[in-house]
Amino acid sequence: MNAARYSRFAQVGASIFAGLVLWEIAGFTLSQTRMAPVLGFGARPGALTRLIDFIGDGEFFVVVGQSLSLFCTGFVIAIAIGIPLGLAMARFKTLRIALETYILALYVTPMAALIPFILSMFGFAFVPKTIVVVLFSVFPILYNTLEGARSLKPEMIEVARAFRSSERRLWLDVLLPFTLPFALTGIRQGIGRALVGMVAAEVLLSNTGLGGWLVQSARDFDMAAVLGAISMITILGISLMAFVRRIELRYAAWRGTAS
Q: Which of the residue ranges 96-100, 108-112, 194-198, 253-257 would you say has the lowest mean pLDDT?
């Protein structure tokens, strides 16, 4: 298993390295032509030295801290809403019928279109930006939890009832453990959407964090800094998704063993 894992890491690393080398060569070659301004090859992987210089500046940690604070606050709230509401909608049919239409309407609405409305209601502060992140990320968590809980076999509930389980113990001992792998899948999917919401909020509501750095760099035509900001957001997203994926596989394996 370890050999296969190391082999996979080596293949992925070699692929990324080869892609960066080809990108650098192509960017350098085309930057010497008259088409360079049109093609926008000013941002090459070698230009990431600009990111290294920015890390040496204390402002980098302020920028990343602002984005992480916004992301974590909004995403934790999305989890706190999505998982309990998904379980409740699966458990109580009346609640599901009452809320399903409204949730579906919000889900299919482009979240970016709601930002001006949120701006008019709450202004430019931290709270409206958090609301944007929540709206972007809550629905994958909610729907995966809902569908996972609805897939619970009625026989499992009947057995729990036969052992005189209360509603609280039914949730804690049967419903939540069975649904957890599905909820973790929704959390993993929600990470990417939360990052999109974070950047959208920082760009459209107030130029702070990585989104603000991205906007300011684009205004200054500093393509190296733009690439650096995008790279930081990408690294953050990949790292978080890989972390949740490991937890998801662990609980999915537990579920398979238990069944």
A: 253-257
pTM reported for the whole predicted model: 0.78
Per CATH, which fold does 45-258 belong to?
MetI-like fold (1.10.3720)
* 3-class DSSP string for 84-128: HHHHHHHHCHHHHHHHHHHHHHHHHCCHHHHHHHHHHHHCCCHHH
Query: Which ranges in the chain are annotated with CATH 1.10.3720.10?
Result: 45-258
Burial 30-52 (b: 16+ CB within 10 A, else e): beeeeeeeeeebbbbbebbebbe
The percent of residues in the chain predicted with pLDDT above 90, rounded, is 20
74 vs 71: CA distance, rounded Å: 5
For residue 182, give the 3-state DSSP assignment: helix
Cα 45 to Cα 23: distance, rounded to the nearest angstrom: 7
**Cα 132 from Cα 203, distance rounded (Å):** 12
Residue type, 74: G
Distance CA(218)–CA(142), nearest Å, equals 35
Interval 162-183: pLDDT, tens: 777 777 777 777 888 888 888 9
Which amino acid, one-letter code, is at 235? I
DSSP assignment letter at 47:
G
Q: Are 122 and 115 in contact (CB under 8 A)?
A: no
DSSP string, 57-90: STHHHHHHHHHHHHHHHHHHHHHHHHHHHHHHHH
pLDDT in tens, 207-242: 788 888 888 877 877 777 777 778 788 888 888 888
